[in-house]
Request: fold
Amino acid sequence: MIKAITFDYGGVIKLSENDLIGDICNYLNVDRASFQEEYFKVNHLANVDNKSFSHIFVLVASKFNDSEKTKKGVLNIIEKNKDKSHLNDELIKIIKFLKNREYKIALLSNNSIDLKERLLKDKIIDLFDNIVISAEVGCQKPQPEIFNILFKELGLKPNEVVFIDDTPRSLEGADKIGYTPILFKDNKTFKKDLSNILKIELI
Reply:
């Protein structure tokens, strides 16, 4: 029986209005898959070691073109994309509905230690019964360790937890870890997927 619904942050609760990675890939003239392959090799530096994401994107870009012009170009793209994001208000309404149905609500994010400050600023921190952030716990998705921390904090077994993420890589190993995964594509698809799992009609 599902007792907790856990959400990723970026790309699920907070939506970007632009495609930062796509813009960088176009600038570098590289395909997204190649860029993401290099990104996943070093993203722990941001998610666990708390380096800035600007630092990570420049580091990845240097794998394709290690010139000062390229570094400045990537930083310029990042600056133009800064703060161009918004809360997923429809999803937040669903979270409140689920809380009223007495489901535990958690946040599990590969993110920096300032995420809680952003949640406070957006006035949504109280939506979550538990918050697990990679930079605070020293491991990241899809490592089983971070999910074990989540389950312990929730006081639940893996098969009692649903986890929603917009990145397939973060959901790798879900069958072995034991939780129920949902790949977030959009609100409409998410509502259908979660309704089928919980056997209830969502608002």
Remarks:
- Residues 167 and 183 are 7 Å apart (CA to CA).
- Residues 68-81 form the longest helix (14 residues).
- The radius of gyration is 17 Å.
- The longest strand covers residues 104-109.
